């Protein structure tokens, strides 16, 4: 009985640990989330992934540049050969 004379029900013990357990899980999840969000590793990792992607793209662009340069150089050589042959034929005739 409480001081007012009203009978109270005894506390049910199994609910307290459940609430405490739920609170612990919630606090643990919140702490993990805060740790992940405030950790410099998260932004570092995303920047590293972006850097690697751009580095690969740069390498690919350089390969394409070299390939086109070599093709252009080869065509230029062929064009000069054709012009030389044409000039030689004109002179001979």
Automatic annotation (TrEMBL):
The keyword Nucleus applies. The keyword Nucleus applies. One of its GO terms (cellular component) is nucleus. GO terms for biological process: negative regulation of canonical Wnt signaling pathway. Residues 26-85 form the Groucho/TLE N-terminal Q-rich domain. Pfam families: TLE_N. InterPro entries: Groucho/TLE_N (IPR005617), Groucho_enhance (IPR009146). It is found in: Nucleus. It comes from the Eukaryota. Its main location: nucleus. GO terms for molecular function: transcription corepressor activity. Keywords: Nucleus. Belongs to the WD repeat Groucho/TLE family. This is Groucho/TLE N-terminal Q-rich domain-containing protein. It comes from Malurus cyaneus samueli.
């Amino acid at each position: 009985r409480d001081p007012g004379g009203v009978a109270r029900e005894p506390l049910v013990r199994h609910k307290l640990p459940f609430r405490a357990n739920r609170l612990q899980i919630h606090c643990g999840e919140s702490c993990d989330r805060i740790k992940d969000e405030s950790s410099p590793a998260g932004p570092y990792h995303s920047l590293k992934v972006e850097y690697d992607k751009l580095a690969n793209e740069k390498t690919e662009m350089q390969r394409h540049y070299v390939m086109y340069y070599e093709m252009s150089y080869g065509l230029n050589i062929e064009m000069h050969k054709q012009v030389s042959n044409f000039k030689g034929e004109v002179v001979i005739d």
